[in-house]
Automatic annotation (TrEMBL):
Residues 218-307 form the Beta-ketoacyl-[acyl-carrier-protein] synthase III C-terminal domain. This is 3-oxoacyl-[acyl-carrier-protein] synthase III C-terminal domain-containing protein. PANTHER family: 3-OXOACYL-[ACYL-CARRIER-PROTEIN] SYNTHASE 3 (PTHR34069), BETA-KETOACYL-[ACYL-CARRIER-PROTEIN] SYNTHASE III (PTHR34069:SF2). Keywords: Acyltransferase, Transferase. Pfam families: ACP_syn_III_C. Gene3D superfamilies: 3.40.47.10. Coiled coil: none annotated.
Amino acid sequence: MLYLNEVFSHVAPKRRTVQDMAGELELTPQDVSVFRTVFGLREIAVVDEGGALELLDAVLARLVATTSIDLKQIKYIFHCHAAPCVCPSGAELLQPLKKKYGLEHATSIGLAQDQCATPLTALSLAEILLADEADDAKVLILTGEVGFTPKLRLISNTTIIGDASAACIVGKQGTRNAVLTVAQRKFEMADVQQAVGSIPVPATSYGDDLLQVVRDALDQASMRLDQLALIVIHNVNTISWKFFARNFPCPLELIYLDNIAKAGHCFTSDPFINYCDAVAAGRLKAGDHFMMVSVGTSSSFAAVILQH
């Protein structure tokens, strides 16, 4: 069994409103209205200066200053990202950070196969690699990248991307956040979005596939949805999660939606950011079962059930 031993997050402190970003993203006034009123996006977290290196540096600094875990126990570092390229070709991203924080002994791996769902599907790889390691061995899952072009910043009729990073230490031993099951599906023919008239809505296939992977996770854990204290999500938009709540069905209050309006969809970091904020807000108590869910634009769906 795996445990999320410690989770840290860093959201870029600067905020820009959807209206402020309309020019560079070529959004019409109607687009702005849809993003605000239908998708629930208001402010987007953006870096003032720097890029992915600075975002990862910020969350690693928080980890090193706070963790009680011996960093020598970290055997692998996964940098999970959604975009295929997160820094200029030939540039070093992880190596200077590994040197700065005493992690040069760890093997680093870049993962992007499931786009925004990659940190959750990476738990399966972590379990495989840790199987042959000592009981106290750890994997550090890092997320963090910047929407440095309009094409990365905007997913048309779906979401606007924010900048953030997160760090999650995963081990075979722990006292909380036990990983009970990891469910994943990849639907090659799924559509992320379709338009009906002038108002974009979640495509039927996207919604059905999301429902399916959540059912898979619950079935594997032999649990019911009403046994969950919280669903920790990716911040794509509110309409997708309202669709889910209506069709599963489940109470909308079960889904942690707080950060959609505050930061936007921060690539792979959303579930960890939302987890940190939910814990800080008292939404999870010891022993609670909860779920992390994320979806990649390649139609990769992942759902993880944990016990806090």
